[in-house]
Amino acid sequence: MDFSAADSRMAGPGRQQTLRHAISCSGTGLHSGAAVSMTLRPAAVDSGIVFRRTDLGNAAPVIPATINYVVDDRLCTAIGLRGGPSVATIEHLMAALRGMGVDNTEIAIDGPEVPVMDGSAAPFVFLLECAGLAAQSAPRRTIEVLRPVSVAKDGAEAMLVPGISFSAGCDIDFASRAIGRQSLTVSLVNGTFKTDIARARTFGFAHEVDRLRAAGLARGGSLDNAVVVAGDTVLNDEGLRWADEFVRHKILDSIGDLYLAGAPIVGRFHGYRSGHALNHLLVRTLLADRAAWRWTGTGVTNIVAGAAVPAAAAAAPATL
Ligand SMILES: [Zn+2]
Questions:
Q1: Which of 45, 67, 172, 277 has the most CB atoms lying inside 10 A of its own CB?
Q2: Alpha carbon of 282 to ligand 1 centroid (Å)
Q3: Is the pLDDT of residue 237 over 90?
Q4: What is the C-alpha separation between 141 and 285, in angstroms, rounded?
Q5: Domain 143-288 belongs to what architecture?
Q6: How far apart are CA 173 and CA 180, in angstroms?
Q7: What is the DSSP letter of 197?
Q8: Is 276 in the active site?
């Protein structure tokens, strides 16, 4: 499988993709500290990205990985059913699925949180490469941005503007000299997700880690799965993977966040000090403004014609 080709097709025409084979991994939840196993399986056309909690029995319902199912976005992205099961820390896996061009997969997981792996999306990219991708019979649907949409809160800002393909740019500005001001924009073409973004790890500050631990969070967090900054120093012995690894991770997060729209977005994203909550608000604001976007891909016709609305599009087509 030529993943560069798969990647470059994402924004334009092309067929939906799923995994060629099921594949599993195991690891530790960042916040819960719980050991968890996860299996990604091939899934039917238009079924989207869905999770199923296998530890809750064979009849456990699927949880669509779309914006309407987000139940928490303060520290990570968690999705769940009202009064039912949830899955936390899905954002890096979602970024890998978007970055590698996976439209449909069912993710069986035997715990409440996706394993953090090394804190980046690279292990999930490796997993997808091992499984291989398979083109499916239906065309890919995308959400094309037709006019600018922006949201702002507490000095942070996020926006989407029309563009012929998808790009994500972020600016960050931290007092710590280990981070400082960083700015980068990446177009998801020719395999750039894998080469420029996937390996960027999540990061945090030592004093925050202490506070999170006191609150019962970040129990699985360590220097093995996050860049930890204390004052102006990076504590990890191995240092950074890029000098601007921090802004690359912000781009990674935003790619995962935007995939909760239920389909790949075609347009240009930019975030200034943006995080999960603001990115999610941007997706909600876009989808709520029916004049700001349209479906592309002939699969849309099926939805308009009244065929079963795919689960992954549950967030979007309420106004179709
Ligand atoms: Zn992240």
A1: 67
A2: 17
A3: yes
A4: 20
A5: 2-Layer Sandwich (3.30)
A6: 5
A7: I
A8: yes
